[in-house]
Amino acid sequence: MSSLKYWIWLATRQGASPVRTLRVLEQFGSPERAYFADPGEYGLLADIPDKLRAALADKSLAEAERILGECERLGLRVLTLQDAEYPERLRQIPDPPAVLYLRGRTFAFDEEAAIAVVGAREPTPYGVKMAGKLGLELARQGALLVSGIAQGLDAAAIRGALKGGGPVVSVLGGGVDVVYPRENRFLYEDVAAAGALISEYPPGTGIQAGHFPVRNRILLLGVLVGLAVPGVVFLMILFMDTRVHSRKDLKGAVSIPFLGEVPQDKEAAKAGVAVGEEDGMLAESFRILRTNMTFMVKKDKPMQVVTFTSFNEGAGKTFISRNLAMSLVLTRKRVVLVDLDIRKGPLSRHFHKHPVGVTNYLADDSIRLDDIIHTDGKFDNLDIISSGTVAPNPAELLMDERLDAMVEELRQRYDYIIVDNVPVGIVADATITNRISDLTIFVVRAGRLDRRLLPDMEELYRDNKLRNMAIILNGVGPHRRGYGYGYGYGYGYGYGYGKHGRRK
């Protein structure tokens, strides 16, 4: 704190504009050296008014120490030009503030995708609505919203961002402890709790009209250097993008229980394995999933048969079902993986498809259950039942009571039966076979599912078309992928888009 008082002393000198403060720093190297300089040395400063030279000659630190005391009392951070946390983009403008006062969280400002929002104080109702939507969408995309906290569009954008659970920074034209306008006092507290209030003016500084143009250089230049054009593009993409990217996109849109998130890992996805002897973020996500599943158990009904489905190809249901099975095996449970996607057999391909499987068992009474059960070879207590030979009548096979008998026998042998099913809605298989399920996990791939399909998903849940339904969000991470409607497997059966693949 000892050096801070010299920074505050310099920044609060009468006539010490940001540009003149920089000139003093360039001449003396630091505020402390400027403080201890001989008054005669101030005459060497070019283009400095006499009132500033006189103010520099005043060596009283009482005001600086008072301000530091207020900062400590209010719990404020003080950032100076020499601090590593000081925003680099702000440091590069012609007149950066020597001192910043901060209430709330400290952000890695230079690493954030920051968008400044400023607007009219007396907007139309439509303007308020759109500003709120802008703030909400920015928050959902993980952007840092920067604004004043004035009445009107500024406040509307901030409220939208806070509703979206995003970070917010408000740059103020007075001290961070001075609320203006008064009706925004609760908004001040919300911003301080979820983000940060920032000002170059010491605490207690009242609002003056001349402060706002000075403040705006921080808000607009310091935050958006290098982002002005990309920011426009970003906003265009933002409003055109209707995909689900995070849990926030699901919140409020569906009431389906949320089981967990699986982070994106291209290497693991390529290998098909995330769970093994080594610990890691992916393995931990499956442990969380495994734990959360226990809360889905209904009274007096064991949860043995867990079925995976989705709306579209590439959601990752096969990857998740396989790794959940391995995670359960590590807890010494006996697990069997069943490939009920009998049209494509994606799970079977991962385990080097066995010629005899589900379709053969359902079509031929002479084939016993033991004939289609294969061991994994890498994991004890893990068995696999492949999809079998591609059949011309998959739906009819899956309606056969022999499937129910097969599952009942598996219940006697295993602790868990993990079923990789087809995507729902395009073909009837998923709903036909769902009668065997105790828990249906709907896999949503981040960046692939259109939010316009969420009402269809909610309908499945509310109408109980999928037993004990829950959601997993897969592929959560910074990289986004394109989205295509529909199943997209290309079976060649002429299914078309179907109900859930149709553009809305």
Which tags fit this structure?
disordered C terminus; 22 helices; 14 strands; 8-stranded mixed β-sheet; alpha/beta; Rossmann fold; 6-stranded mixed β-sheet; 504 residues
Topology, pairings included?
Layout: H1 4-11, H2 18-28, H3 31-36, H4 50-57, H5 62-74, E1 77-80, H6 88-91, E2 99-104, E3 114-117, H7 125-140, E4 144-147, H8 153-163, E5 168-171, H9 185-194, E6 196-199, H10 211-224, H11 228-240, H12 247-250, E7 258-263, H13 266-271, H14 281-293, E8 305-309, H15 317-329, E9 335-339, H16 346-350, H17 358-363, E10 373-375, E11 382-385, H18 394-399, H19 401-413, E12 416-420, H20 429-433, E13 439-445, H21 454-462, E14 469-476, H22 498-501
Parallel strand pairs: 3-4, 4-5, 5-6, 7-14, 8-12, 8-13, 9-11, 9-12, 13-14
Antiparallel strand pairs: 1-2, 2-6, 10-11
Helix pairs in contact: 1-5, 7-8, 8-9, 14-15
Q: Can you characterise this structure?
A:
By secondary structure, this protein is of the alpha/beta class. The protein has a domain at 260-479: Rossmann fold (3-Layer(aba) Sandwich). Helix content is 39%, strand content 14%. The protein contains 22 helices and 14 strands. It has an eight-stranded mixed β-sheet with strand order 7-14-13-8-12-9-11-10, with helices on both faces. Helix 7 (125-140) runs parallel beside helix 8 (153-163) and helix 8 packs across helix 9. Mean pLDDT is 81; it is low at 221-233 and 478-504.
Brief overview:
By secondary structure, the chain is α/β, with parallel strands linked by helices.
